[in-house]
Amino acid sequence: MKFYKKRTLPLLIGLTLGLGAASSAYSQESLQDVMKARGLTQKDLLAAAKTYTPTGGRDEYIAFSSGGQSGQVIVYGIPSMRILKYLAVFTPEPWQGYGFDDESKAVLAQGRIQGKDILYGDTHHPAFSETNGEYDGRYLFINDKANPRVAVIDLHDFETKQIVVNPFFKSEHGGAFVTGNTEYVMEATQYAAPFSEEFVPLEEFNEKYRGGLTYWKFDNQKGRIDMANSFTFELPPYSQDLSDAGKGPSEGWGFTNSFCTERYVGGIERGRPPFEAGCSQKDTDFLHVTNWKKAEELVKAGKVKQEKGMYLIPLEQAVAESLVYLIPEPKSPHGVDVSPDGTKIIVSGKLDTHTSVYSFEKIQKAIAEKNFEGTDPYGIPIINMKAALHKQVQLGLGPLHTQYDSKACVAYTSLYVDSMVAKWDYCEGKILDKLSIHYNIGHLVSMEGDSVSPDGKYLVSLNKLAIDRFNPVGPLHPQNHQLIDISGDQMQLLYDMPLPLGEPHYVVAIKADKLKPVVRYQSGWDSRSDSRSPYRTRAGREKIEKEGDTVHVYGTLIRSHITPEIIEVEEGDTVSLHFTNLERAEDETHGFALYGQNVNLSVEPGKTVSATFKAEKAGVYPYYCTEFCSALHLEMQGYLLVKPKGYQVAASGMQEGQAYTKADYEKQVKTNVDTQAVIDSVVAYITSHNYKDFSEVVALVEDATDQLGFASEAKKKAEEFAAKEDYQNATLWAGQHWQYQVKTADLGLRAKTFLEEHGATKIK
Amino acid sequence: MKFYKKRTLPLLIGLTLGLGAASSAYSQESLQDVMKARGLTQKDLLAAAKTYTPTGGRDEYIAFSSGGQSGQVIVYGIPSMRILKYLAVFTPEPWQGYGFDDESKAVLAQGRIQGKDILYGDTHHPAFSETNGEYDGRYLFINDKANPRVAVIDLHDFETKQIVVNPFFKSEHGGAFVTGNTEYVMEATQYAAPFSEEFVPLEEFNEKYRGGLTYWKFDNQKGRIDMANSFTFELPPYSQDLSDAGKGPSEGWGFTNSFCTERYVGGIERGRPPFEAGCSQKDTDFLHVTNWKKAEELVKAGKVKQEKGMYLIPLEQAVAESLVYLIPEPKSPHGVDVSPDGTKIIVSGKLDTHTSVYSFEKIQKAIAEKNFEGTDPYGIPIINMKAALHKQVQLGLGPLHTQYDSKACVAYTSLYVDSMVAKWDYCEGKILDKLSIHYNIGHLVSMEGDSVSPDGKYLVSLNKLAIDRFNPVGPLHPQNHQLIDISGDQMQLLYDMPLPLGEPHYVVAIKADKLKPVVRYQSGWDSRSDSRSPYRTRAGREKIEKEGDTVHVYGTLIRSHITPEIIEVEEGDTVSLHFTNLERAEDETHGFALYGQNVNLSVEPGKTVSATFKAEKAGVYPYYCTEFCSALHLEMQGYLLVKPKGYQVAASGMQEGQAYTKADYEKQVKTNVDTQAVIDSVVAYITSHNYKDFSEVVALVEDATDQLGFASEAKKKAEEFAAKEDYQNATLWAGQHWQYQVKTADLGLRAKTFLEEHGATKIK
Fold first, then answer.
1. Interface test with A, best of B269, B353, B731 (most A CBs within 10 A)
2. Chain A environment of B492 (Cβ under 8 Å)
């Protein structure tokens, strides 16, 4: 149904785009005609202008979204709302070779649960690394709810580098949240379970099932989580949920909310009311307040026991050392969000219409004065709710999460049941604006919204249901992220973006210019361990070596051939392929796919990757480059020949399918001379212009010069064979000379077009 | 680098949007200000207006793109260029539960190669099913280059239903292409290999390596490929490439091009020039012309031998029966495209500047007159090239693929090396327009461009390199699809779309209104076999049954609980979970994830899915719903308890974490009464308006009525327990009553908002 067709189109007199002769393609067409034909209102046109990003344009912010049960992270630009990349994290993904090459298999293997491969994740909350509470653009952390794990993604190359498994938890939802200088990454349980791996009957739920909160130590130097220096709080068997780390005055503290503090266990199949009834009975649940600075001191002082490879702080110790407090919070909260200045903590109870603003100062005062309502069944002091509250505000039905604006005291809270966003003043406790969204908003995110200095500007609403928003694509619908302009007094809906894969839960957004990813690796780089690969191979040094039962292939990839082109092994051999991409040019990725062996690699410029498999059956297995890298891409191929055990090659040589003569050689040489003339003219154009002022063109010229270097080598070989009157090989090498010329011409033409389109000037 | 900032912004006097009081949020902002701030030109604004699609709007065309080595199909809307869905085809994908539930595992298992699981595919060419040469919107076919396979996707639910493995090929590129009434799906080899699974040395390449072309029979009734009635042409060991089926006068014929007809085998590691040199030496390769109608008759007449489960037409038989001809075509072609009227076949040689237009009439005449240049080394007659040609046109450097316009004789050809699209007249042989794209275009697609009546209108350019077009995201770049307006005389670039996952090769685009996917399944549906699941379960009929060592769980999912909530099995048991989603509401998908067992399901409304695994270790394994389905989504949870062998449950019952009194019950009842008042007021609003005129609202009301029905049941239970003075259960059931009320209110409010936003009128 085209809802927008139902809108009334206001008269747009005077809006016709009168364009001059320079853009004659448009002269027949007015903006008004297009708007009328497409049913666009003035509001729509303004939204279009605020989001449309022309070719080559850049987005102002880059959003990193969890991918839900796709197990990935989704990267998109704001305000264009174009998805730039899916990052493979917990799920194997062949385009990236993730889970296919040996190096990334090793990362995934870190995430095994009790020895079992887990081939998906349920990613929920991404978090940027921070320096002094500001996003620093170095790392991204993401959790897996289904199998309590946290992954580290390096934003220098947008690759997953590490997965850690929580040794105590069987479920978590509240991760990842970082402390102000990325000292720790917080991860809290969701559904309580025994901390051991043993069976414990549900009858012992209250005594032996536990929640918890892990502070994963992050080694900022190495860029990896340091499990040995991480610590976990044992907590009561509530359903702990999201967390946030303190800032400024609240630095050193963490805040974790919870639901089902009723400790209810359902069992609808045996006549017990379901979890949803028993877990939402009490009017309040508990905000957990933890003192990580003090816990860290205890750990450093050797006062905390080690268990399962990290430190574990038992409940009794946490209480005895005053490391943990509870504060009542309204019914079944979803989000806990510390204000940018760190003075306030906002919590919404989804089954309450109130959003609660806690004051960190008041919390500290209550602790100091021991202003407690009592203790919970596990002895944790419960801070008097009223003593801790700054304000409670009725925002609407089903309040969930809060994000902050650049303007002081201004926040945005999602209202799930109302399907609205509320803009409000959390200092004064008053509503400033409300906006309907479609439908049922979960999280929301403002630009740099979790940092100490949010930019505000845009807000993205993560809607849980899309229903009729997009063209139908079957029973499983895309999610919908709606972009909202929050730069003015009133919120403006700008754009609906379908999410084509995965069910995002939360997004973080960073200023685009804080990210400085590389376009290539150092040559021979193992990107997963971030070190030079022992299997790196230089051009001309390709080799095949057998060690025991393993055949190691040290190969290279470059436009447009794979070296070696023929690999011979014996049935039963283990084959370990190692390929280095020799390219330096941006975006010159090569892929490698091999028939029937489940081998599929992505090899970006400079990278070295490996694939190890057993050649079980004798046969012929073609391989080829999977990335359309050049005009001769389809010819970038080879054969793995698996010979039967003990097979003796017949003495006969390779039969040529086509024989070449002196005339063929001379014809090819003539073509090459003509092609060189074209190249020379392009080179003349480039060098007569200020191409050095354009870094893109400089890169293309460097690449073209490389190709031309290869061309000379091939030419030399051709001439040597011709001198020996071996016209078969002379013709083929002359052909190869021409292939390098074609690649050079391709680059040269691209450089010339770039110069023409970007107003390069002639050097006088 | 923000290229668009370098553009000059023309003065836009008079373009200020003067908006009335009704839209005060915008009154302070002029279109001109936004354009200036974002560096947009008038051309950009027009492009924005042509592509921007407001909330709830619909796209005019739906594009289906191959996902390359991601193994998926990508669905996006045109002109909004928003990606709507990634369809899992050859690669397991957890969001869709693909490769995780037993039903989809069975589909993937069909694609095993020599008994081995292949966990990716290299998808290349999607094709729609056709009726009388028009896209009919029923099915989509897609091939896998790496492991010669073809998949069938049902567009009724956008799911992969079947994978067939080619029993002869070891590589293919030229699939899938359909005949005019979807009688057959064409698939041609790429790299020649023996048709047997045995090792054959490369020295016997010319004699024993083979290319081929399979015509897969499609059963239009069953919607599945019928292997037993499919046939394969044995062909020479050239690298056969893309195909296209004849239309109109050429109906009954197929056209397949090829490269490396030199039959060159590289070996750069042993001093032989690489494949790329030897495979591009000759000036011409061969267009293969096959008569499938005649071949079909031979098959039906029992004159073709059966092998490996289908029919195989040996080379000698194909020649003897005049089923195959060759025509020289310019150097290393990429695309072969039959014109909409079926009279012409256009082929471009990527290493030649000529694009060749063949006349089907002339081809037939040459065949009738035996106007042959000779035969190839395998005895296939070679039709005289000049006799078959209508025209040859110099379009530019690196011509690849051609697409057709709605205007007669107008075509668009991609120029890879020039990075341009040429619009030209293939009847007269003249160039009409050229447009630069960024960078290195491969395929291109016009709307319904492969059908007998293309719409033209838009063209998408599938660029192989993005380089600097988008914000950087590391060494591995997204691809770039550029949208071009071809409705006028000159082409206009409208939009750059990054492809965030996979390397698309080809796209087909269909009128959106031809697709009528369902939003739900019949209750208890196995979507992969398209039949009622033997494991379907109705509400209240959930059960756990042990058969031998297998525990079958017949469960259900509905907002917001999983039944059963507790599953108990013994260590060593095989557990077979079967879940039916009881929802009928659009977009009410539930997911199911289970800790540590690699179990992750997506269960759309009506679907029944299964997951079978061995409970190897005793322990506690939480499970939960992964799709944020409702306010109580987080509480939609349960536990799998794996007990040690022979474990005896202690007699003690479940300990309640929280005890409820009469006062608690009465408090809950009061809340429920208040909530009912809110529901009643919403119901009053809805029923006092013409809600029946809005199908969306009718669906919401039906869903709300269902929820309210559940609410009454819970209320009744609560009252029964209260009558027995069991206030524990009375309070919990009263709580459950309230949960249903919350769901009802959620739906009601959504319906009310919809009515308000869509101008519903009050019934008098």
1. B269
2. 25-26
Provide, as residue numbers in chain A, all residues whose Cβ is less than 8 Å from the Cβ of B468. Answer: 56, 586, 696
B84–A269 C-beta distance less than 8 A: no
* C-alpha–C-alpha distance, residues A164 and A107, integer Å: 10
Which residue of chain A is at minimal alpha-carbon distance from B657? Answer: A263
CB spacing of B29 vs A488 below 8 angstroms: yes
pLDDT in tens, B184-234: 999 999 999 999 999 999 999 999 999 999 999 999 999 999 999 999 999
Query: Does the model's pTM come out above 0.90?
Result: yes
Mean pLDDT value across residues B234-238: 98
Q: Which residues of A touch B239 (CB under 8 A)?
A: 634
Between CA A645 and CA A650, with CA A646 as vertex, the angle to 5 degrees is: 120
Cα(B268)–Cα(B279) distance, rounded to whole angstroms? 13
Q: What are phi and psi of A26, to 5 degrees?
A: -105, -5
- Cβ of A626 within 8 Å of Cβ of B146? The answer is yes
Smallest CA–CA distance from B275 into chain A, residue: A635
For domain B61-88+121-514, the question of CATH label 2.40.128.130 is answered with: no
Confidence of residue B651 (pLDDT cuts 50, 70, 90): low
Domain spanning B525-643: which CATH class is it, in words? mainly beta
Separation CA A198–CA A189 (nearest Å): 17
Ramachandran sector of residue A39 (left: φ over 0; alpha: ψ -120 to 50; beta: rest): left
Residues of B in contact with A751 (CB under 8 A): none
Contact A503 B71 (CB under 8 A): no
Tell me the shortest Cα–Cα distance from B294 to chain A, in angstroms.
Answer: 31
The distance of B586 to chain A (nearest Cα, Å) reads: 6
CB neighbour burial string for A627-646, b if at least 16 within 10 angstroms, e if fewer: bbbbbbbbbbbbbbbbbeee
State which residues of chain A have pLDDT below 70: 1-28, 650-652
3-state secondary structure of B662: helix
Residues of A in contact with B472 (CB under 8 A): 515-517, 519
Q: Which candidate, B469, B482, B478, B470, places its Cα nearest to that of B441?
A: B482
Cα–Cα dist B749/A419, whole Å: 9
Count of CB pairs separated by less than 8 Å, A with B: 758
Residue extents of the structural domains in chain B: 3-40, 61-88+121-514, 525-643, 662-757
Assigned token pair, B78 = 């045109």
Whether the CB-CB separation of A284 and A347 falls below 8 Å is answered with no
Rg of chain B on CA atoms, in Å: 31
Confidence band of B13 (pLDDT split at 50, 70, 90): very low
pLDDT, average across residues B554-578: 97
The CA-atom distances, in angstroms, between B712 and each of A134, B556, B672, B678 are 52, 20, 11, 16
Cβ–Cβ below 8 Å for B159 and A474: yes
What tokens appear for B19 in the block? Answer: 């908006």
With CA atoms as reference, the chain B residue closest to A618 would be B199
Positive or negative, the CA dihedral A420, A423, A429, A430 is negative
Q: What residues of B are in contact with residue A649 (Cβ under 8 Å)?
A: 201, 203
* Strand A590-594 versus strand A354-359 pairing type: unpaired
Starting from the edge strand earliest in sequence, which strands make up the sheet with B566-570, in order?
B566-570, B637-643, B619-624, B590-594, B599-603
DSSP H helical ranges for B242-394: 275-278, 292-300, 315-320, 360-368, 385-388
Residue pair A188/A213 in contact (Cβ under 8 Å)? The answer is yes
Among the partner-chain residues B26, B279, B471, the one whose CB lies closest to the CB of A59 is B471
Q: Residue A385 is which amino acid?
A: M
Nearest-neighbour CA in chain B from A293: distance (Å): 30
